[in-house]
Amino acid sequence: MYFRRNQFTATTAILAGLFALSAQGAGAQSRCGASYEIERGDTLYSISQACRVSLSRIMDLNPTLNNPRDIAVGTELRLVSSADSGDRTPAGSGQQRYEVQQGDTLNTIARRLGVSVFELIAENGEFDPDDLDIGQLLGVPDDRPSARVMISPSSGTQDSSVTLSARNLRPNDYVTIGAGPRAAEWSALRQAQTDDEGRLNVEVPLPEAADPGESFIFVVDTDRGVTYKSDPFDVTRETPRRLTLEGRVETGLECPELVTPDGDRYALAGNNPPITTGEYVEISGVRAPAYCAADLTTVDVYDLREVAPPPGDDASGFQAEGWVRAGTECPLLVTPSGARYALTGDGVDGAKGEYVEIRGDRADISYCMEGRATITVDQIREVTAPRNGDDDQSLTHAYLVGGWTVKGGDCNRPDFDITEAGTGSLRVETGLNGAPRTGYVELGGDPAFIFDQPYRALDLERRGVDGLAVMPPAGGAVQLGGRTIEGDGRVFINCG
């Protein structure tokens, strides 16, 4: 498995304390000799890896390098200082040795070699670090890959995060964490620092480029050209979330809808098994794209069975409240949540524009062909509508366009009409104090009807799902379309 880093990263760290690493220290020898001539395609990082010389050491030995990303081909890089050239002597086993000089301490030796005091002590076994003899030979730690990198978990979806831990790294060392597909370049994700014992424990995200079916390798990279690799992380596809719900099936705009006992609604996709409107059922399925209703979670049903409804749920009974509006074939009940039901029965036509509570039965078949279901109304009574005077921002073009009548009024003769003016603005046509008048609608932070000659500004507030409250002008009461606007204003209902 071959990894190549895809960008230059120079790590500079200043570590205080007795066991600090100095930018002035590094190994005295390199695998490439005392110098290296830049060839086409080289980067400082690739040279660092090949020659086993740290990036910081290369920069220290070559102070004339202004831009490490732009080095001319043929440039000669120094890899060993003249003072270091005779410091080490090879042992018979091939292990490098350092000869203790006058004034050396274990800390200065560690800084010169670019290793830690802990590594020096571990490499040389039992000796007195406070009593070094001139000429004494010390073993020099190499960069053999002894560290172990582990990840958890070993598989997951594209949005997974991975906990990466490592042991036996250099203490207090700065490293780069990266990841990439097998047998490919890896990308840096973040930098981290090991603790005093050379341990690392960090959480890193899976790269955005990870695709299901791929295996990714996480790496811990040092600036000495050593890269430690983890076991593969398998990228899996997201498992669809299974849903088990129960409720009553109602007719929806595009698909049947399930209404749970707590009032939540789900659009039901598929018809195998068959989904029958009016039944109380338990369904199992998975989330599907919301093609049935944009504002509802769509469930692709693969199992359905009819179950007993909870106490108090009567399939033949229906109770709801909302505003009565004109529909295509039948009047509509629009609830505060936005649900629409077609209404048939005595007394419904006379309630248009009112906020009412109705009781009735769901009709099996209806010619109305509008709303979630058709309700044959047995009882209807006017009740107090919810008020939401702080919802001014919801007064949009789409909400306001149409004919408006006072609650209980005649939608065939609206009190005012709001139409598009053709320039992106809205026009209101009505009567003021008995005279025909045309004004414009001002939206934004302070919505209002604006009339000129004489000037009138009537503030507007949204009330409920389809209500509009018109407030009196500063000069006092006014007749708007034959309706007196005074005090706390008057509520009008959109006739649709």
TrEMBL record:
Q: What range(s) does the LysM domain occupy?
A: 34-79, 96-140
Q: Which InterPro entries match?
A: DUF5818, LysM, LysM_dom_sf
Transmembrane regions: none
UniProt keywords (A-Z) are: Signal
Q: Which residues, if any, are the signal sequence? A: 1-28
Query: What name is this protein filed under?
Result: DUF5818 domain-containing protein
